[in-house]
Amino acid sequence: MKITVIGCWGGYPAKNEASSGYLLEYDDYRVLLDCGSGVLSQLQNHMKPDDLDAVVLTHYHADHIADIGVLQHAVLIQRYLNGNQKTIPIYAHALDEAEFDKLTYKDITKGIAYSDSQPLQIGPLTFTFMKTKHPVPCFAMRIEAEGQAIVYTGDSAYMEEMSEFAKDANVLLCESNFYGDMDGSGAGHMTAREAGRVAEKANVQLLLLTHLPHYGDLSQLKQEAGEVYKREIAIARKDMEFQL
């Protein structure tokens, strides 16, 4: 598996960048995890949007779904230009029916509901979901193939269950929207130290800090996570790639 950071900012994109979006590739299968503001522009540095095989969403806050409508129109326009008749499935929870219904657009995209009650096979990848602590329903996801695992927390305040969910993962893509001396629980977000705690308890190989704040010194996030987690830590940045 290969994961590429398309966007990594919390709330809104930094200048010339994007909020949450991550491209996951396995052989020739391509899945976009979240589709926030600016993602479609940045995604085109790596692939054509209509070549996506699937999209999987954590929740319906704008910094995670703002470019879904843009994706739908990109695929529609490319259909007129090149005749591609593929319908792209968009997997998401159905706890917000109004938002879920928007994922189906003509025969361009089709919304498909997931739940945390059973694994879901998406192409060659097995997805498992866990509800997080966030002001709106949000789900972390564990993606597995041939003994490899990537875990993406989505948005969440600290929860002990996350470490078990991420157990022995190759990569933990963990939100870190607050600095260590802050309290992100009310906003449904983690601090860097809490991200480090999850990674340490889960025994993951790599902690990738993402959903970044727009203030402070980002290198401090790595330092604070490293107070708890002693293995490899990286701060997400646009176009960063990890090959498993």
Walkthrough of the structure:
By secondary structure, the protein is α/β, with parallel strands linked by helices. The protein has a single domain, classed as 4-Layer Sandwich (Metallo-beta-lactamase, Chain A). Helices cover 22% and strands 28% of the residues. The strands form 2 sheets. The protein has a 7-stranded mixed β-sheet. Strands 7-8-9-10-11-12-13 form a 7-stranded mixed β-sheet, covered by helices on one side. The longest helix is centred in the N-terminal third of the chain and has 15 residues.
The total of beta strands comes to 14
| Largest sheet data | 7 strands, mixed
As laid out across the biggest beta sheet, the strand order is 6-5-4-3-2-1-14
Give the total of domains.
Answer: 1
Number of helices: 7
What pattern of helices and strands is seen along the backbone?
Answer: EEEHEHHEHEEEEEHEHEHEE
Overall pLDDT, averaged? 97
Helix amount? 10-25%
Task: Indicate the CATH topology.
Answer: Metallo-beta-lactamase, Chain A
Radius of gyration: 17 Å
CATH architecture descriptor text: 4-Layer Sandwich
From the helix content, strand content and strand pairing, which structural class follows? alpha/beta
In CATH terms, the superfamily is Ribonuclease Z/Hydroxyacylglutathione hydrolase-like
Percentage of residues in DSSP E strands: 25-35%
Which stretches are low in confidence, meaning pLDDT under 50 for 5 or more residues running? none
Overall morphology: globular
CATH class: Alpha Beta
The CA-CA distance between the termini, in Å, is 5 Å
